[in-house]
Amino acid sequence: MTSLRFNNHERWHNVQVERVTQFDNNDWCGIITKEHGEIRCKRRNKSRFKLKKGFKGPITIYFLSGTTPTIADDVRGHIEVESHWNVLHPELFNESDHGFLYVITNKTTKQRYVGVKTLHTSWKAYTSSSSELNEIIKEQGHDNFSFDILFSCPMKGDLSYLEAFMIITTHALCSDDWYNKWVHEIRFKPAMRDMERQIEIAKSYSQSLS
Questions:
Q1: Which of 207 and 42 is assigned the larger pLDDT?
Q2: What is the tally of helices (H) and strands (E) in the chain?
């Protein structure tokens, strides 16, 4: 097993699981390991990584907010890969936040895509949620694109609001200059606490493209 720490976000790779107990109604289970005995873990995503009772083999565990041991969302978990992301404002990026707002730019055509990505998944090799854009990136190569992280947000509502804000204010859905085809509905009311700088960045970026 290897252990890595990013901010307060510790990850354990290749944890050798001997046995998994039954998940309860709140998605908690017991993982019986060689090195640590039993660890009470919470599963975040049922559909991606079907860790069932009786599972045996290596998995990745990370600690949500530095405290809750959590099973990675997929088999790859949080395996460290070379990141193609450029963090524009390091002081506003925290890997233990819920997720980040990003803009991908085609260096040749100058077309862009704005989106969000959760940080509790394998995000460093992530490209976008657009299948069309992913195919273009695959065809043209990563080097033909810039992958910029504007900032992260601790709350899902704040992140969803700012993504919608940028899509609307840049008129992305009405222009061929953007790959975006729709805007997701906002299901969570933004907390809007300590977000002055994020809103300022989103407005400034939007205005610079108008």
A1: 207
A2: 3, 10
